[in-house]
Amino acid sequence: MTTAHVTCPLCEATCGLEVTLDANQQVTRVKGDDNDVFSRGYICPKGASLGALHHDPDRLTAPLLKRDGEFVEVSWQEAYDEIDRRLPPILEEHGRDAVAVYAGNPGVHNIALTLYGRVLYKALGTKNFYSATSVDQLPKHYSSGTMFGDPLAIPVPDLDRTRHLLILGANPLVSNGSLMTAPDIRGRLRGIRERGGKIVVVDPRRTRTAQFADEHHAIRPGTDALLLFALVNVLFAENRARPRKLEAHLNGLDDVRELARPFTPEAVAQRTGIDADEIRRLARELAEADNAVVYGRIGTTTQTFGTVASWLVDVLNVLTGNLDEPGGAMFPLAACQPTGNRRPFAVGRWHSRVRGLPEVVGELPVATLADEIETPGDGQVRALITVSGNPCLSTPNAGRLSEALKGLDFMISVDVYLNETSRQADVILPGPSPLERPHFDLAFYQLSVRNVANWTPATLPSKLPQEWETMLRLTGIVTGQGPEADVEALDDFVAADVARRAKLEVTRDRTGPARLVDLMLRAGPYDVTLADLEAAPHGMDFGPLKPRIPEVLCTASGRIELAPATIVADVPRLREELAKPEDDGLVLIGRRHLSSNNSWMHNLKPLVRGGNRCTVLIHPADATRLGLTDGALASVTSRAGKLEVPVEVTDEVRPGVVSIPHGWGHDADGSRTRVARANPGVNSNLVADETLLDVPSGTTVLNGIPVEVAPV
Fold first, then answer.
1. Residue pair 232/319 in contact by the 8 Å Cβ criterion
2. Which Pfam families match (predicted)?
3. What is each CA distance from 652 to 206, 208, 312, in whole angstroms?
4. Which residues, at least 6 apart from 579, have a Cβ–Cβ distance to it below 8 Å?
5. Are the C-beta atoms of residues 84 and 482 closer than 8 Å to each other?
6. DSSP 432
7. Quick check: 196 and 161 in contact, CB under 8 A?
């Protein structure tokens, strides 16, 4: 028996795990690492399934090439030869924008794809870059970019010191945190109570987090921005807006005061479903708390006013004096935190060809990918590269996109599964399992509620190339160096560029992600190297979050822009909501499960066992009115499509709301995921409407989709 200590790569919590292997290199046990500096032994069902993922017989172990409509295993050389034969002619004849990229959620959990994927994308030079970011979180990057100058400068709740936590549209007891890296959320929330603090949840559904909280307010989906503006209104009207030390670093305070005037508690009460007196009490308690923080997540970002809601979350943190303060919303300082001069944030540097949707953080909204494939003309997307993504399940109007992919001239998938999306590819390039590659949470340490770092070396050798090598081989092909490109030379070039920007000498004793992470650590804010992390298998703790204003700011003014022009321009659209009559129709929201992670972990028996979780939750009053009975089938229809799903009658959702989990629908012909196909569920994105968008960011509305529900 041997034991390895690894950081879980399956969600944002970055928990430390202890993996036991027998003499045949079989995983026999996975448990929480009691000595991990951050998670202290915590483990969730996803982490416990790491062994099942490693041993999954459906995981691809060789490249697949489609011949006469059927996939066959081929050598890596054959796969790259086919790519070189078919991809460069498309680039040459139709231009760089004729090839699109879709990068999925698992890629951000993979240091090789995080660091070397960007090398490929830059070399490709296409404006048609899409990712899961525009499905769920782009509004937060937008608001942070315009307020603080950096789309990655996202303040996170200082959970370990706050005494008042207001949560909107988030369910961290199930998600394990989102845009907030925090293992053992339950323990951290319990700590708030033990300090005499309070937890308030605003959500259309009585989630697991809402059940744990001191208060739950069942808001109407899509109206969070109205509620947040009303809280801002109360702070100004009652002279409770006190930014304290932040006032010396603020622009736009008076502008926000004026913008908030129409949004009185009385004006928003009917639309939000929350009483005006309750709104005033929420605002007063937020202002009076010793320290407090407002946190909004996917329920606030995937709605019609996602950017405005994301902005107002941090406006409230500023107005209560809780931004950049212990116990408030603070900016992490990661060990690989970028340093030096940064350019101020800009949006709309280009727009999509068909619908004119804006670029944000270098990508276009995936809501328009099908348009770009289907619409003929100069710049039409004719080829697609998907990297650890499953957009045929995870993007809006997924049925339309799945059909659109059939019209491509060529498609490559970098993926470990033959799934609902990669089945449409011409070439599939697999990668090693998480235990066969090194791991470092480059993205999530920048969102961590405590400054920590941990490097995980590969636990087991891999018979497959590392994915950074795959990315460089593809880079060689798209830059005209062919399938025999010198990967070592390309890696040296990448490392030299990182070293140049870090003002360091490039090292030769390492290769791949290890070398890049070492360079980034050496250039970072702490006196630490990769060798130091290698000598600390349970991680290194750099302490609690500390104030970082003004050094974190990189706006053109060097100040917090409390009223950024591009967001303010969307406020009149929100004001129009105040005059709209109440709509008695049903709207659809999503939901998460603790043992589920979007669409990419449903082929593991430990995570899908139990009853059918793909039900439509509906309130008893709505069920009676519509003639729906518990356990019977219902049809759910929107402008985009229709699906049939079992009914679950419950007062867990407020009247007028129905809820279906996302990421399911594993019944596509041609996929090779036996466990997932045996537990298919339904794909809620078949009814997600790609024409309903948050205007500034182009993010699709996934919470508050108008639907009709009827018995089957």
1. yes
2. Molybdop_Fe4S4 (PF04879), Molybdopterin (PF00384), Molydop_binding (PF01568)
3. 5, 10, 27
4. none
5. yes
6. -
7. no
d(CA 132, CA 415): 15
User: Taking a C-beta distance cutoff of 8 angstroms, is the pair 682, 68 a contact?
Assistant: no
Give dist(CA 22, CA 429) in Å, integer: 29
User: Which residues lie closer than 8 Å to 124 by C-beta, 6 or more apart?
Assistant: 96, 99, 101, 385, 478
Q: Which residues contact 153 (CB under 8 A, 6 or more apart)?
A: 144, 145, 331, 552, 553, 554
Which one, of 197, 137, 460, lies nearest residue 327 by Cα? 197
| Contact criterion met (CB below 8 Å) for 461 and 436 | yes
Within the chain, how many helices (H) and strands (E) appear? 27, 26
pLDDT in tens, 551-596: 999 999 999 999 999 999 999 999 999 998 878 899 999 998 887 7
How many angstroms separate the Cα of 413 from the Cα of each of 83, 386, 466, 549, 667?
11, 5, 15, 42, 19
Which residue is it, tokens 């502008």? 255
CATH of the domain at 697: 2.40.40.20
CA angle 400, 405, 409 (to 5 degrees): 150
> How does pLDDT run across 566-575, given as a tens digit for each residue?
999 999 999 9
pLDDT tens by residue, 594-623: 877 778 889 998 887 766 689 999 999 999
Taking residues 533-540, what's their average pLDDT? 98
* E strand intervals along 505-656: 540-544, 560-561, 586-589, 616-618, 633-637, 642-649
Tell me: pLDDT of 239 over 80.
yes
DSSP H or E stretch at residue 29: strand 27-32
- What CA–CA distance (Å, rounded) separates 548 from 325? 9
Tokens of 38: 């951050």
Give pLDDT tens digits for 80-113: 999 999 999 999 999 999 999 999 999 999 999 9
The phi, psi pair for 678, rounded to 5°, reads -75, -15
Radius of gyration, alpha carbons of the chain? 25
User: Rounded to whole angstroms, how far apart are CA atoms 233 and 239?
Assistant: 10
* Averaged pLDDT for residues 263-270: 98
Within-domain flag for 82: no
In sequence order, the β-bridge partners of residue 543 are 451
Q: Is residue 454 part of a domain?
A: no
Lowest pLDDT segment from 141-145, 292-296, 426-430, 680-684? 680-684
Residue 367 in domain? no
Structural domains in the chain (count): 2
Find residue 65's DSSP bridge partners: 72, 427
Q: Which of 265, 296, 330 is the last residue of a domain?
A: 330
Using DSSP's 3-state secondary structure scheme, residue 616 falls into: strand
Residue 338 is predicted with a pLDDT of 65
3-state secondary structure 246-280: HHHHEECHHHHHHHHCCCCHHHHHHHHCCCHHHHH
The rounded percent of the chain whose pLDDT value lies above 70 is 99
Q: pLDDT for 478-488, tens place per residue?
A: 999 999 999 99
- Give the residue from 701, 10, 668 showing the smallest Cα distance to 395: 701
User: 86: helix, coil or strand?
Assistant: helix
Rounded distance between C-alpha atoms, residue 643 and residue 641, angstroms:
7
CATH number of 168's domain: 3.40.228.10
Beta bridge partners of 201: 167, 216
Give 115's Cβ-side CA count (13 Å radius).
28
Q: Residue 218 carries which DSSP code?
A: -
- 205 occurs within a structural domain: yes
3-state class of 101 per DSSP?
A: strand
DSSP 631-662: TSEEEEE-SS-EEEEEEEE-TTB-TTEEE--S
**Residue 555 corresponds to which tokens in the numbers above?**
């706006």
Strand partners, 411: 384
What does the CA dihedral 518, 519, 524, 527 come to, rounded to 10 degrees?
60
**Which domain, by its residues, includes 627?**
582-711
Mark which of 272, 306, 330 sits at the end of a domain.
Answer: 330
